[in-house]
Amino acid sequence: MSKRLRAVKGLMYPDANSLPIVREAGGLSRLTPEQRKKVKLREISSGDWCDDLPEESREHLIKKGTVVVVQTSEVPKTKKTRKAFLKGSEDEDG
Amino acid sequence: MAKYGPASAIFLVDGYDMLANKIQTLRHKVTALQTKSDGLGDEWEEHSPIGVSMAEVVQEGAFFDTNTLRSHAALKDLPSSPEATTRVVCVGFSGQTKGLAFEGFEGVYQQDYEVLATRGELQKVNATYKVTGKRERGVILQELAAKTADWDTESTPVDYTSDTNQHAIPITSSSVANPTVITTPEPHGLTSTQKVLIAGHSGSTPDINGEYVATVVTTTTFTIPENVTVGGTGGTVVQSNSIAGGYGFQHVTALTDFTGFIGTIRDSADDIAYADLVAFANVTAAPAAERKYVAGTCDRYLSFKGDVTGTGSITVFCGFCRS
Questions:
Q1: Of B1, B147, B240, B271, whose CA is between 20 and 30 Å from B264?
Q2: How many helices (H) and strands (E) does chain A have?
């Protein structure tokens, strides 16, 4: 059993490859038009997994109840989310 | 100085664009209603408040056209009795731009439409609109505009720390303490756990300009989790989130060929991850309007997302009022 993140409400955030660009700019609204073209945003529906949610947003969204931590044996299907999921599991296991 | 004209104003009632084509005066006022309470033997007339307010919006000497979806169409569909359905009303004076102020109402609606002169499809009118219901002040998230595909405003969100409805509280000082105590010369109006943004504060070590979670001590003091070894002075503090919920307002003034439209207000604490805050009901025909309440914390950045079904065109306005 591992812990995974599930969205309670719809979410939108940059994917793992785009996150460094958004961080460098200081937020989505500060992206230049050139940076904006390189950024891909993920749309998450209520009830979907969101294991690749940016680290800086996790604590706040969990505290607010927008995202919940779920104990599950279900493993993510895509490589990127699997990687983020396994990394998260290692961190939790210490 | 900016020039304001008819294009700066917003006046939407249940999805109808009520603004005159040429406007001379647009004003609104809120009245706290009273009831007559003097009795036999009283020498003077007395009135007592009944805890109800009424909003009134007036367009004086305005020129209207009588085409469809303008004021005449709205008049035609007006409820005929006080028990009829409430109306969703949005009024703005400062401009049709994201982040600018508007006022939202929902209540039973009365309209007086006094025709002064008529020529063809043009009428000169004194029009008065009364709403008995609560008024909220908010900001425009999506100015009234036509769209032909899905869109969102995450690239131009509305930042609560720049909200003109919000008063920046001056800071007297930051104390040498851990956590440091911030003193203000006037009541700060904060609530513990609320986020604040400090700007322009000088002299402190470390620099405390930035965003923090506040813990209220008194009406004019609060702490932030910072170990200050040299106190500072000056600057301002503003709220960077609100914790008492709010009301979303959406008007759809035109819809052609799309088979559905769902508008969603989103919020974000960090301008990186946005979450759904208010999802309006699916709209399949115009005119349409909705006012929707959301409880709890509303984060610093607000944006609007429009999802359309099919192909066509839609004209939408959206705003949000923090409680």
A1: B240
A2: 4, 4
